# Entry
Amino acid sequence: MDANTPRLLLIGCGAFGRLHLAALRGLGIAPMVLDPDRAAAEATGCAVAPSLAAGLDVCDAAIIATPVPTHVPIATAVLRSGRDLFLEKPATETAAEAAALAALAEREGRIAQVGLYFRFHPKAQALRCMVAAGDFGALHYLAARFSGVKRARGDSGALLNDAVHFADLLPWIAGEAPARVFATLADSLGRGREDLAVIQMMFPSGLTALIEAGCVLPGRWPDAVVPGAETRKDVVVAGRAALVEVDFAAETFALRRGAHEPAANGAWLPRHTAREEPPIPAADPVQVVAAELAAFLEAVRTRRIPDANLRDGALAPARILDAARLSAAEGRVVSLTEIA
# Structure
């Protein structure tokens, strides 16, 4: 580990905490760890912090990979201690909590980055670059599915566990924030949390986007993060000049260039090229998380606010999810101006 590398405290040694640990080891970093289950912390082979305060005393920054309801109190303690923060998604349960954390980080002058996995996947980055370069022309539709057959988490439902990924990613790819949201939520398991979420987003430009998320739908591929689960993680981007379908689980990127053109009798016919598969690198979960953490460490070193900061990476998607809850509860389209 380089002498200039910040000393890190990894808080949470569960499934995603272990993924962070593997990514850090790949970066040549041995963090101190903290977990309520001391045996789980000791099993990592890293130095174990006896308490949060003790860990923060000897570290420069913290990574929080604990259950969602614990995020706000732990993140608040980290920021108030004068330490920088990497906070796994979803950063908070509500937009109000995200706004409060963002304001605290700004007051304390701390670097804070949200763990938005798909922003650091090479195929998502390629999509965003193509949109920004105008390769699609005007966008008219985005769609994303984060669904399958897997455990229903006890600390969150489909919105916070799954939909949050694409509530962030689709506006990030489009380069535009949605204006209105309409959603339906279902609790088919009867456990008091939604296990299915369907969210429609309408953008000022006329772009429409759809997110399907849940744990009670057919999967297609083995999940790379959750053992025994089957999943679909895919995104469609459609514009006037190109169409793309990305399957993150299968690591495919299918591109067709072209558009519909007018023909005889008022018909419009598709004039698209054959399907292309650009050579965009694959990335496994450890590699993607390592890219996230490398960006965080660079932000800490340079004191440059990361793109996935608490306002853009926590508050913005949280407002969409808050709007989805309100829409589902009242059966109407909700303007984002209604969400604080």
Remarks:
- The two ends are 42 Å apart (CA to CA).
- Residues 8-116+287-305 form a domain with the Rossmann fold fold (CATH 3.40.50.720).
- Residues 116 and 165 are 7 Å apart (CA to CA).
